[in-house]
Amino acid sequence: DAILDRFHVPELGAELWERAQWLGRRAMPCDGRAPHVLTRRALGLLDGEPELGLDALARELKTHASEISRHFHRDVGMPLVQYRARLRLLGFIRLFDSGERDLTRAASAAGFGSYSQCHRTFQSELGCGPRKFFSGMREQMQLTYAP
Q: Which residue among 79, 91, 106, 135 has the highest number of C-beta atoms inside a 10 angstrom radius?
């Protein structure tokens, strides 16, 4: 497929699956050091309220937003806004897998403001739209990146 011919798409797909597994296990980052306490606490808060922004996290954790941002980006490997977009994306995929076939409803339930926002995030992160992903591209990615 043309999607696999694009230079960075396979790496993005692999990285998303790897991060999803890391986030699920709360394992240490790949460099072996434990995540900073602010990162761990922010992740814990985001588990319950995935739409919390940086300012809200700073108020909750009683620290400066720049401190959370710096440690979070270093430990998780992406800015908070990208992390939250990926959480919504993973929620969207879970909703589809659980039987929600109306992509607009699934996008809304996953926290996207619109289906077009979901589509842009999907395209940006995985290099293809949701329809292409769910109609065979996911299986290709899983076969390509399976251990």
A: 106
CA–CA dist 4, 2 (Å, integer)? 5
Provide DSSP, 118-135: HHHHHHHHHSS-HHHIII
Give me Rg for the CA atoms of the chain: 16
Which residue has tokens 């699934």?
A: 106
Q: Which tokens hold the place of 126?
A: 């995985």
**Segments in the chain forming alpha helices (H):** 2-5, 9-25, 37-48, 54-61, 65-76, 80-97, 103-109, 115-126, 130-132, 138-145
Backbone angles phi, psi at 105, to 5 degrees: -65, -40
pLDDT computed for residue 27 by the predictor = 43
CB atoms within 10 A of CB 59: 12
Rounded to whole angstroms, how far apart are CA atoms 145 and 49?
30
Q: What is the pLDDT of residues 131-147, one digit of tens each?
A: 998 888 888 777 777 66
Task: Confirm if 38 and 72 have CB atoms less than 8 A apart.
Answer: yes
How many residues would you count in the chain?
147
HSE-CB for 139 with a 13 A CA cutoff: 4
